[in-house]
Amino acid sequence: MVSVPWQEIAKTPTVSEALVTMLVLRLRPRAQEVDGTGGDGGRDLYEYTESGELIHYEAKSFTGRMTSSRREQVRRSLISTARYQPDQWDLIVPISPNPAEMRWFEGLRDEFPFVRNWCGLNWLNQHFAQHDDLVRYALQGSGDYILDRIAEARAERDLMIGGIPDLAERYRALQVRAQEISPNYAISASLDSNGETAIHLSPKGDDSGTHSTISFTGKFAFRRNEPDEERRLRRFEDALRYGGEVELTGGNIQGVTIDAPSELGISGSFVPETVRIKANRETLTPPLHAQLIVRAASGIPTASLPLQFTQRTTGTDGGTLFGDDLTGFMQVKMRYDNRDRSWRQTLSFMPPEEALPQALVPVLRLISRARAGQIMEVAFQGPTPTRLSAPISQGMTPGGWDADEAEGWADAYEALATLQAMTGQFFPAPADFTIRDGRDAREAVSLLRGEKVNLAASTVSIGVVREEALELLTTSETFALAAAYEGMLLSFGEHQVDLGPCIETLVVDKVLNLRDAKRELADTGHATVRMRVAKSAPAQRYLGTQLPETKSD
Length: 553
Prior knowledge:
- The chain is α+β, with helices and mostly antiparallel strands.
- It has 14 helices and 27 strands.
- Helices cover 31% and strands 31% of the residues.
- The strands form seven sheets. The chain has a seven-stranded antiparallel beta sheet. Strands 20, 21, 22, 25, 26 and 27 form a six-stranded antiparallel beta sheet that branches.
- Helix 3 links the parallel strand 3 (54-59) and strand 4.
- Helix 2 (13-27) packs antiparallel against helix 6 (132-139), helix 10 packs antiparallel against helix 11 (405-423) and helix 11 (405-423) packs parallel to helix 12 (435-448).
- The radius of gyration is 33 Å and the shape is elongated.
């Protein structure tokens, strides 16, 4: 067994994390790697399970102990990954947690309920013991491994002395001979993911005569009262009725008979180990355009998105349309049944790695308005417009979100988009953008429109270096102050927006630390004076350089 020298590998974090990534991709066939260029959004891999759950995996190269700085890195990853609304999140790191570290990790669930497992050192070593070739791949330090690779290369060269020209010639000759086998079907071959040869048959023309038909007759069985078997039966029936995909193995298959033109040589009866049924996805050219509309119970439209369906599968009873909205953030799958003219739609929202804020608003608006009791309508465009509508039985609010959170995010991104349009400074919505940032953007928009913005300040502190200034602050119980700033900068992630010079005004009704300020001024030559802002006149901010007019008695 090849052991994993984690301390050595951790010296090159990219190698350590790549090694863990390869292991997860092998263990979880549905998992997909995230391109980390510009940040991985708090996950190195993600997976949609068969039940539709979204799982994120974050790989870290840490060894030793989970220090405070490393814990902060993990927390930042969770903040980034939270915007994708995962159902589960796993941390994969070659550290066996001690009790304190495990208490910290479990405490993360209070803020991030999707936190699931800490896959530590023992978990990694156990799985790499069964996949030691991955360790050799990462280390590139095993002499036996390198020799094996050289031997494989030599074997390939012995079979094709002429190199690539030899391969091309042999492949061409075999292709020519394959096309001569049948007048009705074009034949091609490829290697599947398991290294097995797959033969592809495609009709050469539109001849639908029975003499060229390939028919399959199968006998399949499913055990009753077993949840897994019943789910497999439903997938099997759906694949046949609406053009889906299903794979059957073992006891489900009792026999298959193929009846095909004799020249193909594949007719006969047998019991295969596996049967995979996959409908051909037809590309729709041009795409089928539609409008997805949410209507209130009264029929008034409250949100809509333009859709385009680009692919279609068909079955015995209907079919399935596949597409997305024009931003590409909302994936749409629509199944229709020709027998009873019923339809069912599945919408999946996948936030992009980067997008301008204005592109996010329409999708979030639709999510916020699509609530139970409202009506969902799909209006297909074309010479004969078709409208399908049905009550919404379950809202689209992502798991873990409050009821009004989607509306709050839509407002926040809309405010940022308006600010960008008014200043001419366009940039993608930052990964750490928050609803609080949206409120800041909304206040900035009000300032740019010439409005005054109230500040939530109840106290204010100023610095004093002269005794005369301190005396001025004590001559009246109530007095007004104005502060001028050369520039007001707002930060959104790595981007800053300059709103220009601004003025802040406030009315003070009490000095809170006069005695201490006098003592501090006498001792040090400067003092900080804290004052209470009058409730009757809130502090305000506005853009410009013009100070407010003063009134004299």
